Amino acid sequence: MEKLTFGWEEWVSLPDLGLPAIKAKVDTGARTSALHAHDIEVFGPAKTPKVRFNVHPVSGRDDISITCSAPLVDRREVTSSNGEAEQRFVISSELHVGGQNWPIEITLTNRASMNSRMLLGRQALSDHISISPTERHLQPELSYEDYHSASLKKGAPKRALRIAVLSREDNYSTRRLVEVGEARGHVVEVIDTTRCYMAINTMAPEVHYDGKRLPRYDAVIPRIGASITPYGTAVIRQFEAIGTYCVNGSAGITASRDKLHAHQVLATKRIGMPSTAFAASPKDTSNLMALVGTAPLIVKLLESTQGKGVVLAETKKAAESVIDAFRGLKANFLVQDFVKEAAGEDIRCLVIAGKVVAAMKRTGAEGDFRSNLHRGGSAKVVRITKQERDTAVRAARAFGLGKAGVDLLRATAGPKVLEVNSSPGFEGIEKATGKDIVGKLYDEIETRVRPQPARKRRS
């Protein structure tokens, strides 16, 4: 390795931490290197803990903040030059200088009062480095402009993330979210939505769980059951208020869960769907049916899920009976045209980040017009048309959902959206298509939570 000469201050890079340029003071009197860090937080399993922290790499520029994470190597007592002892977390990272790189240990501490955001101690100065204490910047100069560049986000390391899955069920989808996330080095915690409670205030909104304030998460993956939609979306709103990235936002979940609201959104965006009608008064039953068309008709509860609360009325008289029964239960429902040519089949398109990543055809069980897999339906991979793909993407975008299951009917007039599901299951579509859908979801999460280039100050 070529011998390098350092002055008392040099430009260095810590690419493992997403820090492309930082000035470091060389101090041979210190044993271990130190990095300015704040909001330091340990997370992950006790056997392999990780530490997450924020760095202001540019002195005097608190608007430039980089979130870093690294495996925790040690925690040790460090005595500063003024004689004060402090317990510090220790991490390991690659140091890049002058075209060379080598691993060093770094302690994390608050250096806000220091001009240099990093200190290089004796352990980091290997045998091939000589020191010229009266000079500075003997190695190639780097630029803080990297923190204003889009390349920062593109080239940022895939750091370990802390992710919350809001779910009350130990099912295939929840287990897959945990398994795939942990396989990628992330820490994934399943949170029972109903056990969350909130401190709502203007200065420091918080989410609490089992008597403790929840930590800062890099991302939240909501899997909110239909029965707790109002409370579940309130919890998501709280995470949104904190500034946490939520794969699906509260507004999109709320709109998609209410069938009437959802169809109004689809209609506003001119997205194809079966003719739909809604009325509150029992006097309007005949007119309500006439707006949709002739029998057979579909009568559907507004908050139906997995095919429950969806009835096919073969005749006008049967439709009137079902409507009367629902009204007797004081249930809210809508009436839809029955798309005969679909023949008990629909297409489930899984949309992630504005792209259809998988599609399957679902066929209802013998004698059942509903194709839901929960009701005994079967599924197989299917090739969709460009029009069907575009329709699915537009439907997910209409609700602002980063992850959605869009159900389409193949009608003579083109694809018609039956439903936009904000908490689609992964089991059926992964088994039918053989694709790692959860992995594609994590690809998007990792992209979204990378460091954002800082905005330049106006001079």
Tell me how many strands there are. Answer: 27
CATH topology label of the domain at 4-155: Cathepsin D, subunit A, domain 1
Query: Largest sheet at a glance?
Result: 9 strands, mixed
CATH arch. level architecture of the domain at 4-155: Beta Barrel
Tally of separate helices: 10
Strand content: 25-35%
From the alpha carbons, calculate the radius of gyration and give it in angstroms. Answer: 28 Å
Q: What is the first-to-last residue Cα distance? A: 43 Å
Any low-confidence stretches, pLDDT <50, length ≥5?
none
Spell out the CATH superfamily of the domain at 4-155. Acid Proteases
Query: What percent of residues adopt helix (DSSP H or I)?
Result: 10-25%
SS class = alpha+beta
Mean pLDDT: 87
CATH C-level label of the domain at 4-155: Mainly Beta
**Apparent shape:** elongated
Q: Strand order within the widest sheet?
A: 2-3-10-4-9-8-7-6-5
Keywords:
alpha+beta; Cathepsin D, subunit A, domain 1; Rossmann fold; Dna Ligase, domain 1; 27 strands; 22% helix; Rp_bS6_RimK/Lys_biosynth_LsyX; manganese
Write the layout of secondary structure elements.
Layout: E1 4-6, E2 9-14, E3 19-26, E4 33-36, E5 38-43, E6 50-55, E7 66-79, E8 85-97, E9 100-109, E10 118-120, E11 129-131, H1 151-155, E12 162-166, H2 172-183, E13 187-191, E14 196-199, E15 206-209, E16 212-213, E17 219-222, H3 229-242, E18 245-246, H4 250-257, H5 259-268, E19 276-277, H6 285-292, E20 297-301, E21 310-313, H7 316-328, E22 333-337, E23 345-352, E24 355-363, E25 378-381, H8 386-398, E26 403-411, E27 414-421, H9 427-433, H10 437-448
Helix pairs in contact: 3-4
Protein name: Probable alpha-L-glutamate ligase
Cofactor: Mn(2+); Mg(2+)
Pfam families: RimK (PF08443), Rimk_N (PF18030), Zn_protease (PF05618)
